[in-house]
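Fold it.
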Amino acid sequence: MRIVLSIYSVLIFFGCKNSTGKNNPNASTDSAKYFQLSDYIKSQISEVNKTPYYIYKIIKEENNRDSSPISSLEVIQLSKNFTEPDLNDPTIKKFYTENVFFDETTKNYSVSYSTLNKELVLQNVDVLLKEDGKTVKRIFLRKLYTVADSSIIEQLNWKPDEGFQINRLIQLPVKKEVTLQTTVVWNEKEKRI
């Protein structure tokens, strides 16, 4: 009798465990840990707000170039290009695949996220990490979207602790395409971002 009760207890235990685990079609199966891009960018902006940097913006449109100082509020607004949409948003996360590659020559990790869904604005994210696998060297994003009757391709580049750049190619239906480059710098260590 004790053997029957023991077997019955084991069956009930595993039966209950399965009803809330992997075999339950209603349970969430998304356990992938993608790079927390939004959190990383927000922490960078928080650091900019704490430190009294001289922040400036350079805009290049075709052959024209203009630079001017900007406020930290404008930096926050422009940085949203890197955080929206959020790669970790459950409604879109399922459409991305992650690839990790270690380059023996440069001793850097490359973590890439891409989608085949052309309906999504965020098409690619590439995060370059140092050999420790934690320290970010660069972040690159590629976006594709439509506004009115124009197609826009954005290439975004984030250089940690220094600044970022947004390159926009606007394809108009009648006129030739227009290129617009916005560079924001707050702690320039090199000549270019």
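Helices lie at 2-20, 37-50, 72-83, 90-93.
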